[in-house]
Specification:
155 residues; alpha+beta; 3-stranded antiparallel beta sheet; 3 helices; 6 strands; globular
């Protein structure tokens, strides 16, 4: 059975701050400064002391509803420099985050804006697809929290 990766506890806390309240099966409950992870059906973030931990895919769908597209892709990095001749050089790729702010222009027709050129800093050779996706999710959550805090201070 394939199991989707859950977001980190850090991301889950940010989601709670952003009022993510969709049904999740995995949660963390704080007791005496310790986080206890448990799997039960049907938890929401509105429950006191409970932080729900959705899968990365679940968060991607939620972010899309909020106007963000978060994904990963392969991007060319360089040619393999350790080969003896150019004919045998392979193209080397990295996993790169794709982060866009989207808006619906017409029904099911969208416009997108690339959010940051600085996201390439995470795309070293040691990151998995899930690691890069977690970075991208966190990047957007941080932006959303910043925007939420700015709008509160303008009131």
């Amino acid at each position: 059975m394939i199991q989707e990766r859950l977001v980190t506890l850090e991301s889950a806390k940010k989601l709670k701050e952003l009022d993510f309240n969709e049904l999740c099966d995995t949660c963390n409950k704080s007791q005496n400064e310790n986080a206890i992870t448990f799997d039960l059906k049907g938890f929401h973030n509105t429950m006191k002391g409970v932080i729900t931990r959705p899968t990365q895919c679940h968060v991607q769908r939620w972010l899309f509803k909020k106007g963000y597209f978060v994904s990963t892709s392969f991007a060319f990095k360089e040619f393999d420099k350790e080969v003896e001749d150019c004919d045998n050089a392979k193209m080397l790729f990295i996993i790169r985050p794709e982060i866009y702010k989207i808006e619906e222009v017409k029904p099911l027709l969208f416009s997108r804006t690339f959010m940051s050129e600085s996201v390439d800093t995470v795309t070293g050779n040691t990151y998995t697809n899930e690691d890069v996706l977690e970075f991208a999710i966190n990047y957007v959550l941080d932006e959303m929290i910043k925007n939420k805090n700015e709008s509160k201070s303008n009131i």
